[in-house]
Amino acid sequence: MAIRVLIADDHHIVRRGLTFFLQTQKDIEIAGEASNGKEAIQLVERLQPDVVLMDLIMPIMDGIEATRRIKLRFPDVHIMMLTSFSDKDHVIPAIEAGAAGYQLKDIEPDELVESIRKLVHGENTLHPKATNHLLTRINQNEGKELHLQLTKREHDVLKEIASGKSNKEIAAALYITEKTVKTHVSNIFSKLEVADRTQAALYAVKHGLQK
């Protein structure tokens, strides 16, 4: 089944260029195009794409707010920020809003395609600068050993998160319900003082908690 991609960018040329290239991929289908964050939300509701390529700076509603609202209503939609900004003031809010990917617009076409494929398989895909900003944030909690607050089952779930598994895959691996996984994930985020799976995974790697 093809990966259905929605492109949200206020520049028509950017949207056309991405569409032209991505539709040449046999496993990718362009679900639609949005010129601002508000339109992106409306199209996600109507078209139910697998992945949204989201620009950061757009009129009417920016990409961060649009991402936050989409993830609240459609948590299974994977969002990748595709932007020209790599500073922490843009990276951190985007990841906290729920973006599982963060790439710059100068990314090589083949790398972009591979990043999209990784997203639908539950893997985070971040530009090195974005990763560095997140690690810096995690380092601010260095020495707190926040993971000591986790229960054994929460440790197990964290290891699965670090391996890139989705909630459904974690449920199958640990023989628990997906609802239970969601509860554990929420507790992990709270105890580790992280905002999403990307930050939780980075925390696990940094503290040697991954598989």
TrEMBL record:
Classification via Pfam families: GerE, Response_reg
GO molecular function: DNA binding
Main location: cytoplasm
Keyword match DNA-binding: yes
Lineage, uppermost ranks: Bacteria, Bacillati, Bacillota, Bacilli, Bacillales
Protein name listed in UniProt: DNA-binding NarL/FixJ family response regulator
Organism of origin: Bacillus chungangensis
Residues recorded as bearing 4-aspartylphosphate in the entry: 55
Domain HTH luxR-type stretches: 143-208
Keywords: Cytoplasm, DNA-binding, Phosphoprotein, Transcription, Transcription regulation
Classification via SMART domains: HTH_LUXR, REC
InterPro entries with a match to the protein in the record: CheY-like_superfamily (IPR011006), NreC/VraR/RcsB-like_REC (IPR058245), Sig_transdc_resp-reg_C-effctor (IPR016032), Sig_transdc_resp-reg_receiver (IPR001789), Tscrpt_reg_LuxR_C (IPR000792), WalR-like (IPR039420)
Domain Response regulatory: 4-120
Top-rank lineage group of the source organism: Bacteria
Cellular compartments annotated: Cytoplasm
